[in-house]
Amino acid sequence: MHMRCFATGAMLALVASVPANAQDDAPKVTLIANVNVFDGTSEQLIENANVVVTDNLITAVSTEPVDAAGGTVIDGGGRTLIPGLIDVHWHTSYCCAAQATVVTGDILEVAIRGAKGSEGTLMRGFTTVRDVGGNPFSTKKMIDAGEIPGPRILPSGPPIGQTGGHFDYRPYQDVPSNPADSQWYWYNVGLMAMADGVPEVTLRAREVMRMGATQLKISGGGGVSSVYDPLDVRQYTKAEIEAFVEVADTYNTYVASHIFTDDAAQIAIEAGVKSIEHGFLMSRETMEMMRDNDVWLSIQPLLDDEDGFSFNDPVSQAKWIEVTDGTDRAYTLAKEVGVKVAFGTDILFDPALAERQGAFLAKLQQWYSPYEVLRMATSINAELLAEAGPRHPYQQGPLGVITEGAYADLILVDGNPLQDINLVADPDANFDLIMKDGVIYKNALGQ
Q: pTM for the full model?
């Protein structure tokens, strides 16, 4: 018999024996009974299990009966309980505002739309995100304080790029610049940042860490949506990237870099970058280099399909086609070579597309089994988050797993996603219960 039992009826009964005037101080106990558990790591479900949550942590996963005297009991009715999902390439500030907002709006509008969109992220079952670009710090603070609903956020803060690089969206007429010029509005308010040369790179990196970043995000290569940088361009010199890495190292964390191509990726790996974001156009040689240097590939299932991005600029649209033409090969190579692969979505400036976050996860079935997909979006992604070391803001327990001591971030699925991963594509219909940090945000069971 598969048994994991860490709580007893006697222990839980203590809750009921607490004097009435001390009830507010008593632990909050929730029993989710009669469920089949995907624990985030094992391909085998823990069948007919009972899961106990005490306050915000999981305190028991047991196949034996558990008495939750004094606590709340939820009958799972044989549904599948999985860990909360994790998206490691999310943009709280960019996902849920139209591109026009960046042209005609201000940071207050961007922040409000991002905060409102965070509730939708949580209600899609994504209880944790690594935010790799923007200014989500206030949103994160209010979510953590329980003032607004949303996922846990591991923020990179404003992504940093060079003049003419991926994060240079200034008007064409803004150069030449001089040191006396004020910064562009979106740099001033921390939505993105620019730095050139080792001294300025060091300064900006320290400023972003001062803002509360968990890890640094830079651009080491050409981008799709940016207009001044062809895809083949390698951005930042090796010395500049090493300066970013050194600042991150002084904070005991790491650098993630936007990169598509071999040349840019290999220089970044040599300089000490630990997470390559995208990487659609990389070769086997670069993938092997990543594997041998313990570097993550944070790649997204972006395809030129019904969810494809569209750009008014024909050059950007052509770059999009070139990049997405490499998606299938990149996933196939990464799996063959044995690179550590993480899941993210990178949805930008499209509130309607943000609603498809779970559908992006389901697209991974083109390369992975349902088990591999779920494991990647839970315990594997949590391993990448752990690269932030002491800067990781959620250290009371592990994320992405259902085990004793882990955070109580849980989803009750009507069906078995290990057999049908498409269930995650429609969270409204198939996620009957969503819990984050021990708090229930959705309960469609009528209990």
A: 0.94
